[in-house]
Amino acid sequence: MKLSVKAHEVVHMNVIFIEMVNRLGTIVTVAFILSRLDLFKRIILGRDINRVSKILMTVIFGAFGILGTYTGVPINGALANSRAVGVIIAGLLGGPWVGLGAGVISGLHRWAIDIGGFTAFACAVSTIAEGFVSGMLSKGYANAKNSFVSAFLIGALCETMQMGIILLLARPFSEALGLVRIIWIPMSMINAAGIAIFMMILDIIYKEQERLKAGQAQLAMDIAEKTLPYFRGEFDSDSAYNVAKIIYEMTDLDAVAFTDRDKILAHVGCGSDHHVAGDPVRTSLTREVLRTGEIKVAVHKEGIECSHGGCPLRSAVVSPLYKKDQMIGVLKLYRKRENAITETDINLAKGLAGLISTQLELTELELQNKLLEEARFKALQAQINPHFLFNSINTIISVSRMDPEKSRKLLLDLATFFRRNLEIDKAKIPLSKELEHVRAFVAIEEARFGDRIKVEINADDVDGIFLPPLTLQPLVENAIKHGLLPKDDGGRVRIDVIRRGMYAEIKVEDNGMGMDETFDTRTPNPEHVGLYNVDSRLRSMFGDGCGIHIASTKGKGTTISFEVPCQEVVQFESIAG
To answer: What is the CATH number of domain 385-565?
Structure first.
């Protein structure tokens, strides 16, 4: 008789084993399908799991547990099931509270569908316990060398614990013991294998994401390496076109474009017949990014809102470009299909925009350093220029014969002039210091040329105004040398500082020779090195709107003006060193 009972149990065990393998396949299939969904990936792969993610994980894996109940195999008034698979995975991924929550959801469901069943309460309690215990073991699992084996052992341990709880709580005990003898091995082995397989799928997702990230990083670096030469100068339509062409050729994107804040700089690929360089920005998506400074994604044509009816572009990601914390335009990546922008495309746009912004800043810094070196060299020349030095000394000697006190003052002015030249290494100096430099220079020149030159300075309110060093003195020197001295009777230079709300306008005006030709201060010119240097340094420090403006009339004089932000607008960390 005992042999027949054992034989009966073995038969049941084999049937349960086969049925659970078949039904576990359904759960694993669903798990695999879920693992391919972007939403599921974002929840599971989140490095810093927040409260919302934990709630979602609790619900998802609680539902997994319920699915495991419904795919269970009826046996002796109970169920041999895979409910523990989802619950234990919840604990391993989310910790004790996520495991506990998933266990409560699926455990209460198990109790509710069979109220009064002899294992209903025991199974509910054991499910909750399995979720909590697996969560407590999650840190050890995360540090394990072989995650597959660790997941299997934790699953087998938790299922063995479930059998113990059934024996403790289910009554009559004889029926509980008979049930455990049949289901223990199949449930422990199959469910542990299911947990291990699921965790292996997640491990594959992790590795796939890492490969994608590595591929994106390598692609971005390759693009950066190829585009580097085009950032040597100003980022204009030509350089933007070359960079867009490289990105287009190295990716499978359907179009790549750059804009500044007002117009298209370059567009390569589909839609280039109506997205033309120089045209105003066409899409509302781009205008929205320019307004908010945030990356935007359009998944259909209406989201892009191109004003051209035949535009083939259907989805896009647009990322802002920055230079020194100032948004200067956008990078746009397009596809011809709707809903075609992937997480990979978004990350690529972010990475490229970041690299391009960094390269633009480095180029700007390189230009500023170059200009600083030129200004330093010019200042050094002024310090050791024998003509300037000898002329100044001769002037002081000449004055000393008739007015020793004035010669002493001129010596102090000369010392001040050279001392201010040494401040070229500072990024910014107060306008008051720059005016002190100008006054020292003017005092020496007035002593040398007498009544032929007159310099007026109208600057009563200079607090909070800062300039790159050697900004005003070269402009005044230029006005005297090229404007006043060529005239037989000389002339006058006037410096005005005028506050206009958040900005201060500074003007250097002379009534000298003037000029009839025009020139671009952004283009290096051997005859106007000083003006080019001053203009470039102002634009580099304060933005393109703060460059110098020149108005000149032949025979009447020249006015050079520029605006700079006051300290109330731009807070400087270090003002004068």
So the answer is: 3.30.565.10
